[in-house]
Each structure stands twice: as C-alpha cells, then as structure tokens.
Amino acid sequence: MPATPPLARPSPPGAPGAAPLLALADQCVQCGLCLPHCPTYQLDRSEAESPRGRIAYMRAVASGQLVAGPVGDAHLDHCLGCRRCEAACPAGVRYGELLEGARALQAARTPPSPRIRAALALLARPRLLSFLVALQRPLARILPRRWRAALPPPPAPQTPLEKKAGPVQAPAGAPVVALFTGCIARPHEAGTRDALSRLLAAAGIASVVPSGQGCCGAAAAHAGDAGGASRLALANRNAFAGQERVLCSTSGCHDTLSRSLQGAARVEDPLVLLDQAGDRLRFRPAARRVALHLPCTQRSVVRSDAALRRLLARVPGLDLVELPDTGCCGAAGLHQLAEPARAEAFRAPLLKALADSGASELLSANIGCRLHLATGTTMNVRHPIDFLAEHLA
Ligand code: SF4
Ligand code: SF4
Hints:
Elements (H helix, E strand, L loop, with lengths): L17 H8 L13 H6 L6 H12 L7 H9 L5 H5 L6 H15 L4 H10 L2 H9 L1 H5 L4 H6 L9 H6 L10 E4 L5 H4 L1 H13 L3 E3 L9 H5 L3 H14 L5 E3 L3 H10 L5 E3 L1 H7 L12 E5 L2 H7 L2 H8 L6 E4 L12 H4 L1 H18 L3 E4 L2 H8 L5 E3 L1 H7 L3
Parallel strand pairs: 1-2, 1-3, 3-4, 5-6, 5-7, 7-8
Bound molecules: iron/sulfur cluster (2 copies).
C-alpha cells in the first residue's frame, strides 16, 4: 500500500512576526534553482517576480533595511502562493510560511482592497455563501449577459445517473472518516461529497460530515489576515474534535486544514485513500477522451497526482489526456479576483491545450482552479471524484 505523502510544513496557521520571518528568509542561499519553476518569473522574466527576488524583498523590509513601497508590494501581490518554488528548493526554504508572514506585515501597513475584504468576509460565512450560490441560477435569468459571464458557473445539478445510483451503504463496522466541506466547496462540491461517500462505501469505508466546520482559512492567510485564519482554524478544530481521519477533496485547502488539525486529526486526500483501496473498486468502461488538469497544490503540496493517475487507469477504455504543465492556471485563491488580467494570462496556455486535446470534459481536483478554468471554456469541468463515482460498476 503506498504511504500518504508527507506534508510540506508542520507549523500551525498564523503569521510569523518580523524576527521569525527573517530566520525563515535567511535559509535562502539565493541559488536560483527555484526560478524556472516559478510561473510569475516565467511570465515576466524579472528577478523581482521570482521567489528569490521576493524573499530578498521580504528580508530587506523585515530587517528595516528597506522601507516597503507600492512597487515591491505589487511584486508580492503577484505571487500566486503555488509553492512550486518550495517543492523545488534544495535548501528547504518554507516559502509558504514566509509568504503568509510577509503578507500579514503588508496587510498591517496597507489593508487589502474592499473587494478582497468582502470576499474574505463571505468565505468565512459558508452558510451565507451557499445561500447566495443557490440564488445564482434564478438570478442568471434576469442579470445582463455581461454580468453573467463574469460569474463562476453555478454548481452542477445532480445527474440522473447519480440520482438513480443512490447511496452505497458501507458495511456495518466499517472504518469511519469525516469529510471536510470548506467554504465555496460547500455548495459547489455537495454532489462531489455524495460521489465520494459512494466511492468510499464501495471500498468498505463509512463517512460522516461533522457540523460546525467552515473555511480552512487559506484565503485569509494568503491575504495577510492572520487573525481571521486563526479563528477559522479554531472553528475547524472544534468541529472535528473526536475525529481521527478527515478527508479534504480540495487540494488548495489541504495544507491549511492539516495545520489547523495538527495533533488532533490526520487530514488525507481521498484520492490517496481510494487508491490504497483500489482493488475493492470496480469501474464501468468510459470509452471517451477526458482531459486532466493537475493543480499546483496537488502537485507540490498534497502530492496526490500519482494516486489519481493510478485510480483513473482503473477505468476501462478511458482515453486520458494530461494537460501539459504550463505553470499555475492563475486562480490561486483570491488572485483571480485581485489580478484578473494576470489570472487570464496564466490560464490562456492551459485553455489552448485543452481546446487542442480533443477531450470532451476536464477533470481538476481544486475548486478554485475549476471555477477559474470553467469561466474560460464551455467544456464540462468537474472533480475527478465525480467522474470516478459515475463509473462505479
Ligand atoms: S528559495 Fe531555495 S531554490 Fe530559491 S533561491 Fe532560495 S535557496 Fe535557492
Ligand atoms: S509561490 Fe509560486 S508564484 Fe510565488 S514565488 Fe513561489 S513559485 Fe513563484
């Protein structure tokens, strides 16, 4: 059985102050080996838009050698938080932690825009967010076409197949795992959680959805709202009290949730668990071409891409086309809201590869990437778990 890959960093959410930030930054030996892996460096070909350049800026500001200004802060804003640099760094620089610390100091001197503050407030209230998302379909009938096009697609209704299939009951005495619902994934992945429960039950595992849980806090931490991220972490810690294993199907939330529940529960990617139990799963043939997008967080942080490939290889007849790694899709949490033009520039090569692939649908395991990609294509974009459950024999 393949072991669950280790997570990249162990510290709980919350931003380090200037002194710990300096200690983290000092681990960078400025070798530059991370530069070819950085999507913003690839786009702009500028040292200031590279991990090494950003770390130098963070260090200079935190040490008082440089007064922070709009130019340096803009380069910090452009960072996608994809952590490809961290995965590539031979010196073990904890870039994700550095970025959260630098953004917290930045937010203290320059508060985020009203748009970002409104988005964070909404993400911290998943019930209200679910209510607004539920209004999206009726609203779409009266909104002008231009406004509709700017909105992410509403959650897919359950397909007749999913309704007909109904729940698969796990055997009595089966091991139990808890499912994480998140914020925007709460309405958008309701069908995915049903699909996951059916796959788990087919693999002999029961699942529960504890109440009181909410946003993982990654968006707040990346926007420099360390206090908000800590409050969300505490709420999730309380909600999952008594659970041993928590499944997080959104790769972008995995690391933050893991740090929130550190010492209390183990957070796992359901794709890894299903892969481990793969011999108990039987799939119907799917004689069509399907494209696969691997989010940065799935590649660099959770590292469940190999498990996903093995799972999809179990579906007979599936013609899987893995989209080339063109760098981050540009979604990057709230980056798609804060920097829409740059987000579209990052997305463009992926959409071209998708259009050229001849695929009939696209699979991607991160909710932010899916929403961002779906606004640029008419193709059906869904979680691999939805696809796998639809093909359960
Ligand atoms: S972050 Fe790591 S890979 Fe990048 S320059 Fe610093 S030490 Fe080198
Ligand atoms: S997190 Fe991503 S965008 Fe930011 S410096 Fe690292 S590789 Fe570049």
